[in-house]
Amino acid sequence: MTVAFVTNSPAPYRIKQMGLLSDFIGENIDFYYTEPLGDDRKWSVDDALHRYLRQSFYLKGYGWLCLGVNSIVKDSRFLILGGYESPTYLWLAILCLIQRKPYFVLHDGIAPSRLNRASFGIKSWPKKFVVKNACGCWVNGSLSKRLFESLGVNAKNIANQYLVSDLDEGSNESSIAEVVFSFCQGRKVAFYSGRLISRKNVSSLLKAVQKMGDSWRLIIAGHGDSEDELKRDSNDQVLFLGHVEQSDLSFLYKVVDVTVLVSDDEPWGLVIYEAMKNNCPVIVGPDVGCASDLVVDKVNGVVLSGIEVETIQKGLKTSIGLDKDELTKCNSGILSEWNLNSSLKEFGNLLEASNA
User: What is the DSSP secondary-structure string of 76-119?
Assistant: First the structure.
């Protein structure tokens, strides 16, 4: 028998995580997805590794229900569900209970503004059903742990996922080095990497940098629905790189002055981990899930009180004054715990306690 991992769509960092977990537990892990990779995510993934489930019908606000999954439950030693809200996860949880198959719930984080309302109301019933019947919950960070406790999960059945990126530490060489250095020309440089969609609030970051004057530049990596609008609003202080390969992304974290994530609804924010790994200062908005676990205000980054243009400007000014030695020391301490070894150990403890 194998282990089945069912989630929404492929991600390179998840493939690496599950590959190491497979070695750690001595079981093959099969990947199943409820939907294809979105057009705004240009990740390179090997389709031979993936099995896309047949979508039965779509429930607005919840996602796809994939009914033909009985054999996955039957043929697996246990399942790992990549969340709790999708109708497919609910259906799999029901099938696991019927067939007496153990399953675990994986959770990547929650935006602070959603924490207090996620466990109330009729919409919370499917979530509670899925998580309370799981053998264990492999959550990510302190806010995620609080969420699952509010959904009725016993603290002993909750382990930290310590979600990390598959990005390596950067070098000073890159295929885009000439373009980047020509653009920067000794100015201070803010950096955004991610999808260009409205909730990421890149428009406010763009305005903030442009208001800082000619001494600042902004580099944007990524694609999305807001891309055309952002380009229309930008001037020569802004460089759009589109999709950036992992090796080039590592380079960028090394050469920019600060990485900024000021979303108005961000469950986690993996780019912040990536920046920290390369000792790049960070700025996070108040609704970024990773802030409470990864960012120490005015030490390794700046935690903003809001995401207005003026507030972001103040954050940019503060970020360039951070002590590099203190920043490096802080990042080293946090990342010594926040890594894949810790992640695997936590899941191992869940697995042992569950007797799955």
Answer: EEEEEES-SSSHHHHHHHHHHHHHT--EEEE-----HHHHTTTT
The CA distance from 352 to 341, in Å, is 16
Which residues are CB-contacts of 301 (< 8 A; sequence separation ≥ 6)? Answer: 272, 281, 282, 283, 284, 295, 319, 322, 327
- Which domain, by its residues, includes 128? 2-164+339-354
Q: Do residues 73 and 143 share a domain?
A: yes
Interatomic CA distance for residues 76 and 67, integer angstroms: 17
Query: What CATH code is carried by the domain that includes residue 48?
Result: 3.40.50.2000
CA distance 159 to 121: 26
Rg (the chain; Cα; Å): 21
Structure tokens at 3: 């282990």
CA 221 to chain centre: 16
Both 160 and 194 in one domain: the answer is no
What DSSP letter does each residue of 25-82 carry, written as one string? HT--EEEEESSPPPTT------GGGEEEPPP-EEETTTEEE----HHHHHTEEEEEES
Q: Would you give per-residue pLDDT tens digits along the chain (356 residues)? A: 899 999 998 888 898 899 999 999 999 999 999 987 665 555 555 555 678 899 898 888 788 899 999 999 999 999 999 999 899 999 999 999 999 999 999 999 999 999 877 666 667 888 899 999 999 999 999 999 999 999 999 999 999 999 999 786 656 678 899 999 999 999 999 999 999 999 999 999 999 999 999 999 999 999 999 999 999 999 999 999 999 988 899 999 999 999 999 999 999 999 999 999 999 999 999 999 999 999 999 999 999 999 999 999 999 999 999 999 999 999 999 999 999 999 999 999 999 999 87
